[in-house]
Amino acid sequence: MKVSAAGVSVSIDGTPILDGVTLTAAAGSVTGLIGPNGSGKSTLLRCLYRIIRPQQGAVLIGEHDVWQVPARRAGLLRAVVAQDQELDNDYTVRDIVAMGRIPHQRLLERESATDRAVVDEALARVGIEWAQTRRFATLSGGERQRVLLARALAQGAPVLLLDEPTNHLDIGAQLELLDLIRDLGLTTIAALHDLDHAIAYCDAVVLLQHGRVVAAGEPAAVLTPQHLADVFGVRAAVTTHPLTGRPHLVFAAAAAVLLAEEHAS
Amino acid sequence: MPSTLPAERSKRTAAHRAHLVPDRAYSLLVVLLAAATVVSAAVAIAVGTVPVPLGDVVAVTWAHLTPGDTERSLLYDQIVWDFRTPRVLLAGVSGAGLSIAGVCLQALVRNPLADPYLLGISSGASVGAVLALTFASAVTAGLGVTGAAFAGALMSVVLVVGLAQRAGQVAPGRLILAGVAVGYLGSAVTSYIQLQANPTELRGIMFWLLGSVSGASWSDLPAPAVALLCCMLWLLVDGRRLNALTMGETSAAGLGIDVNRLRLGLLAAASLLTATIVSVAGGIGFVGLLVPHAVRLLVGPDHRRVVPVSLLVGAIFLILVDLLSRTLDRPNEMPIGIFTAALGAPFFLWLLRSRSGAVR
User: By the CB < 8 Å criterion, does A138 face chain B?
Assistant: First the structure.
């Protein structure tokens, strides 16, 4: 199911955060939202989470305006792996993954055999079934992200939204998680901080700055040295990754490049 | 069950589910607690300056609950039905209601220190009650202590929620700050009036502020009982959403929950419960803070279990504490709030110590 934003504007306390953002993420693709801090990535996601209501424009999943359908219906359209990991509780891994079934359950309805099967499958899919009786708070950061991903899978929604899923993870856990997310084959939108992840794992990227879309399209077409200099103020070059053969970004501060050029001349 | 390592399976350490009552014993626990509620209520009705045999307690209650005229002692009838039963029921309803209000607020602000008085409700109620109890009773214009306290509680809730909301969205952080500020404001007013009051009035004020169900009559019961019934039914139906909310705002929204509406619902439930209880029983502290924590230790964090068990444990706790407060120093009575705090604080500290060892 495709995801789109049509002329979305949000301002908070009079400060414009998003300013007429229009974009489309194709069904089944992985789209990276990139941009400097404060560019509006998280705010755009929060519109899709149904936390911030756009003052203008609409966010759509398929043909459904997220803010026009009932909240519970929105829970069937998209699942969220957010940045908030609440640890001050005693929920087990299985308790948390089972919460993914909430939008499917009627009030007072007990967990059905289908619910249990879906939860089992989700736990297995992310490779965390061994920990299902463990308390969530006692897992490592990478394991916790897998649990939240399993909860999103248990939700059974066609669209997956992630806000900086690799934050605070070690490099091994980062790459494992991204591989896993790619393999799920869901329509995925992820705010990413690491531009190299965007170029390596995304089918498309959307570059945001000051709440506007600067460029959108294939990663190689968007993550050009020119765009990166304009938006992030860094010098960048695209090389080939010596181990994978994929495109790879390398960066340097603009001043460092100037210094190096001075040395060379 | 998918495969687990044998070592993982055999040891149940702090890393695993840690509550005291195993999941399969939950139904049994509820049955036992329900029975304990009835028994403790019967005992609390039987014990007093004039002891009434348990058999007569049952007989009098039965006579009142069934139509038809049966032979019974008029003295026992008056003691049991007019004095002790409403008192014990009010203690039970207050304990249950304050505990449920505590559950609501702890889920709402996701802060373990949240209790029913967080929103400045008791402080507002105190202002109303103290005005009615003193020279200033003209201000409350014949509302009576209960009516004035309820009006004060409602005014403080409206003030707190008004200060905490922005464009209809209630942020938990602002709610706490606004509640604390309004609470202090109320205390200032109460303190000032107390300083102006004469010694006879002061004793009444102290008693009210520390909470007491001693003057309970049947007419005190309907408001808190109806509030408790409504809130309990809603929470039992919506327990799963409370679970999701404790995992964070974004998580809950992602699971298809209208977070703001749920928060407003919790706020309304907690306010209604606290205001109706505080206005008849005064500021009974610590129950709403303590009981939900103790219950989570027993049955784990799932609100579908925490709500019914908190209800029963809260009722039993306050019925027994009230019994204690009127039997320890007979024939004198002590405010119930002294005992809830005196018993609650050490338990809470123990809880804090044992939790910090296991989790962090």
Answer: yes
Residue type, B62: W
User: Which domain covers residue A22, as residue numbers?
Assistant: 3-264
pLDDT digits (tens, 9 = 90+) for B234-284: 998 888 899 999 998 899 999 999 999 999 999 889 989 998 998 888 888
Size of interface A-B (CB pairs under 8 A): 118
| A10, A42, A99: best to mutate for the B interface, most B CBs within 10 A | A99
Instruction: Return d(Cα A81, Cα A72) in angstroms, integer.
Output: 17
Domains of chain B, by residue range, sit at 106-359
**Partner residue facing A90 (CB), from B236, B249, B301:** B301
Indicate yes or no: CB of A71 within 8 angstroms of CB of B258: yes
Nearest to A71 among B3, B257, B296 (CB): B257
Of residues B43, B76, B81, B39, the one with CA closest to residue B64:
B81
Indicate whether B3 pLDDT > 90.
no
Q: Could you tell me the CATH number of the domain that includes residue A45?
A: 3.40.50.300
CB-CB neighbours of B5 under 10 Å:
8
CB within 8 Å: A86 and B256: no
Quick one: DSSP state of residue A2?
-
pLDDT score of B359: 42
What are the pLDDT digits (tens) for A112-147? 899 999 999 999 999 999 999 999 988 988 899 999
Say which range, A53-67, A180-194, A250-264, has the weakest mean pLDDT. A250-264
Q: How many domains does chain A have?
A: 1
Contact B17 A92 (CB under 8 A): yes
pLDDT at residue B347 tops 90:
no
> In angstroms, what separates the C-alpha of A199 from chain B's closest C-alpha?
27
Superfamily of domain B106-359: ABC transporter involved in vitamin B12 uptake, BtuC (1.10.3470.10)
Contact A9, A18 (CB under 8 A): yes
List A34's β-bridge partners, or say none. Answer: A207
pLDDT at B69: 66
ipTM: 0.90
